[in-house]
Amino acid sequence: MKADSIIFDLDGTLWDSRKAVAESWTSVIRETPGVDGEVTEEDLTKTMGLLIEEIGKILFGDLEEEKRTALMDACVRHENDWVAEVGGVLYPDLEEVLRELSEQFRLFIVSNCQDGYIEAFFAAHGLERFFEDYENPGRTGLPKGDNIRLIVERNGLKAPVYVGDTEGDRKAARQAGVPFIWAAYGFGEPEEWDAKIDRVGELVDRVSTY
User: Fold this and answer.
1) Pairing of the two strands 89-90 and 15-16
2) In DSSP terms, which residues pair with 107 in a beta bridge?
3) Distance (Å, whole) CA 187 – CA 49
4) 5, 21, 34, 115, 181 from 156: Cα distances, Å
5) Pseudo-torsion of CA 6, 189, 113, 95, nearest 10°?
6) pTM to 2 decimals?
7) What's the 3-state SS for 137-148?
8) What is the per-residue pLDDT across 16-60, written as a single tens digit (0 to 9) for each?
9) What φ, ψ does residue 200 adopt, rounded to 5°?
10) Could you count the other beta carbons within 10 Å of the beta carbon of residue 158?
């Protein structure tokens, strides 16, 4: 059956927002008593694809859980506002590729992010018009595999594919029973994949094989 839809991961698949996120988190840290240092783009690279709670443990593991949770909550709140304002780095020709894909496939986003982050992506770059629906654990409390299934069921998709860049994305796609296309230009290296793209523009040809 030919694919009828594409579900995208966000970070490492559609854009790179590390600079803006690092800036926003560092500004929160500098205003938080008892917390020193900064968050760098390299720090974020090591945590790509993880849930917010997991990222907090990696970056701020020396803090007590209550203080770490409060810090992460403050970071993501400021992050949403800052990212919506300054945006990130879109991968080459993304808008043109999404326009072409949307003429043939229904498009969606499922990301392991906080509530409001996908909306910040839309606000910064005006790409919401290409996507029918989106989901994240910040809104549902569900892991990525379940959120992929939720998008599939909610929108009556018959032959979706999932495009992501990490091993976590691969596992989520497998859990949801959806073919996985690896965005090899992103941040991760999954154990296996059903198809591979080295730039987002290759999706037009790759997806047509499903």
Assistant:
1) antiparallel
2) 6
3) 9
4) 10, 34, 49, 23, 21
5) -50
6) 0.93
7) HHHHCCCHHHHH
8) 999 999 999 999 999 999 888 899 999 999 898 888 899 999 999
9) -60, -30
10) 10
